[in-house]
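re: ur question from earlier - yeah i can do the single chain one, its not a big deal. heres the input i used so u can compare w yours
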Amino acid sequence: MASARYTLNIKPEDLKPDEEKPLTPKEKRANFWYYNKWKIAAGLLLVVVVGIFIADVVGKVEPDLNIAVVCQKGIPDAVTNRLGDALVEAGLVPDLNGDGRQMVTVNQYNLNFDEGEQVDYATQMASSVKMVTDLQVAQSVVFLMDNPALMDEYYDCFSEANGAVLVPLEEAEGFAGLDLTTQNIATGESEDGGKYLEGFTLVRRGLNDELLADEENAANIAASNALFAALTGVQP
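and the output i got, formated as C-alpha cells:
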C-alpha cells in the first residue's frame, strides 16, 4: 500500500492515463508494414509459386512418344533435342495424344557401372531412379544404347533372350536418313550430332506379359514398334 505522504497531493485527474496521440497516415502505414511485412512477403511468394506452377501445367506439352538414350558418357542436350525434332520432321511420330502436334521426348540416362572409372554418383543415382521408373511402366520402348549387353545384366530386358530386338545403328538405314545437324556451342559451327552416337545400338526393349496386357499403354507400344521398324527395317 502506497504511503499517505506520496498520495496526499495526487489529484483525480492525475490518475487518468495519458491519451494516445493519433497516428498520422504515414505513421499508420509504417506501423502496418512493420507488423505485417513478413506475412505480406510470404503471401506474395505463395502467389508467385502458384502462378509458376499453373503456367507450367497449362503450358506443358505432353510428348506423343518417349525414347531413351542410355550411355556411360553424357551426350549434349542439343543432340538429343535435335534427334526428337528430326523424328518428327521425318513423319515418324503420330499424334497419339490428339493435341494437334507431334512431339518426341528423348530421355537420357547416364549409367556407368565400370568400377575402374570415376563416376558422378549424383548423376548416376538420378539416372538410375529415372531408368527404373521408365522401365516399370514402359514409358520408353525404343532405346539407343552404347552397351545393351551390360544393361541387360542389370535390367533383364535388353537382350534377345529377354525379348528385345537389337539392330546396330550403322545398319539402321532409316536412322541414317535423319538430319542430326546441330551447332557446336564452343565453336558456333555446325556439326553432325550423329557422331556422338557412333557404335550405339537401337533396341526395342523386351516387354513382359504384364506390360503387353496394359491397355492404357497399348497405343504407345504399337507406335514405338512402328518407329523402330521405320528406323531399322526390322519389325519387332
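Residues 146 and 197 are 8 Å apart (CA to CA). not sure if urs matches, ping me
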